[in-house]
Design goal:
CATH class of the largest domain: Alpha Beta
Strand order of the largest sheet: 1-2-9-6-5-3-4
Largest sheet: 7 strands, mixed
Helix content: 40-55%
CATH topology of the largest domain: Rossmann fold
CATH architecture of the largest domain: 3-Layer(aba) Sandwich
Number of strands: 11
Strand content: 15-25%
Distance between the termini: 46 Å
Structural class: alpha/beta
Order of helices and strands: EEHEHEHEHEHEEEHHHHHHHHEEH
Shape: globular
């Protein structure tokens, strides 16, 4: 069974969720003369299967694994490969991997000839519920995460649940942080499902995880259908991400994105409560849900000055004003602009304890 989730907007597309989805790729790249398949070394066999299923001549391009591949230099190497293989506007870029690889593939596609088609074949939970959906593409630079990129919606998205069976347990759990985020900002039933059986939520072959994936994708699809370029509503998807991205930068991207977001959710919940916008039980529920999944909820006390500095370069900042996504209640996200620095420090105390 394949679940099709529609993403609307100027360039609508579908997100396909199911098992053994490689055969769906030709319908998404119809008319292409050739395909470039970007992948990291651990996914060489899966990339080869995708290339074979494409039904057109393919070029396999191996890139560094995880965040090490999300650089301008790696993107330039990919563009050189496309150039040497005479890729034209009718050709397509396919990204096989987790969020880092699909972010890179989308950015490469956005830059080549000012934009060619691309398809993310997401192999990680994080990629399925976050990176592969929404048309955000980008790379990291020394100043911060995802600061260079483009909005470039894909031709379609393949979320093959079979790939989760071989995903390391730590990676699967990390991806659940983004699922939890969706529960707090839009779909509280996600939280109910996790709380009722955390083990089932992390079972890659079970029906609960599939429902969580589909619910999280629907949350993001509804948001980006209305606001592709983060001019308003889409900003709510960054709940927990401002501190999370700062942690990733401080750790030189050796921390998993989901782990950093998990800590960021604790900070955002504390900030929501301290500013009088969220009740204490709802704030405490963040820690309970995340810890039930085995996700981190604390970070180094001495890191605060460095994290605050990093947050000032966050994409959501406006001029010199810091902006945070907070909650005015369960599934009621809002924006807190220019909070007092002492309030931020109090919120961080909940993380540093």
């Amino acid at each position: 069974m394949v679940t099709r989730i529609q993403v609307d907007g100027d360039r609508p597309y579908e997100v396909l969720v199911g098992r053994d989805l490689a055969g769906q790729l030709p319908s998404l790249i119809e008319g292409a003369s050739r395909a470039a398949v970007l992948f990291a070394a651990p996914l060489r066999e899966q990339a080869a299967r995708v290339a074979e299923a494409a039904g057109v001549p393919t070029v396999l391009i191996e890139v560094p694994d995880a965040e090490r591949g999300k650089t301008v230099e790696v993107a330039a190497t990919c563009w050189d490969e496309l150039g040497s293989n005479n890729f034209t506007r009718t050709d397509v870029v396919v990204g096989v991997g987790g969020g880092a690889v699909t972010d890179l593939a989308g950015f490469v596609a956005a830059g080549w000839l000012r934009g060619v088609r691309w398809v993310p074949c997401s192999t990680s939970l994080l990629g399925m519920v976050d990176a592969a959906v929404g048309g955000k593409t980008g790379v990291n630079i020394a100043a911060g995460k995802n600061l260079v990129g483009a909005f470039h919606p894909p031709a379609g998205v393949l979320c093959d649940l079979d790939s989760l069976r071989t995903l390391p347990a730590d990676d699967l759990t990390a991806g659940l942080a983004e699922v939890v985020k969706c529960g707090f900002i839009a779909d509280p039933h996600i939280l109910d499902l996790i709380e009722s059986d955390p083990a089932a939520a992390a079972d890659p072959g079970g029906p609960v995880l599939r429902e969580l994936v589909e619910r999280a994708i629907r949350v993001k699809a509804e948001v980006v259908s209305v606001d592709l370029k983060e001019s308003g509503l889409r900003e709510i998807l960054n709940y927990g991400h401002t501190l999370g991205h700062a942690i990733e930068k401080r750790e030189r991207y050796t921390w998993k994105h989901g782990h950093a977001v998990s800590v960021g959710l604790i900070f955002a919940a504390a900030l929501s409560a301290l500013s009088g916008r969220l009740d204490a039980p709802a704030a405490a529920r963040h820690r309970a849900v995340l810890e039930a999944l085995g996700l981190p909820t604390s970070y180094a006390p001495e890191a605060w000055p460095e994290l605050l500095s990093a947050m000032r370069v966050d994409k959501k900042a406006r001029a010199a004003t810091l902006r945070f996504v907070v909650l005015d209640g369960l599934a009621k996200p809002g924006i807190l602009a220019g909070p007092d620095e002492s309030l931020l420090e109090q919120a961080y105390a909940e993380v540093a304890r």
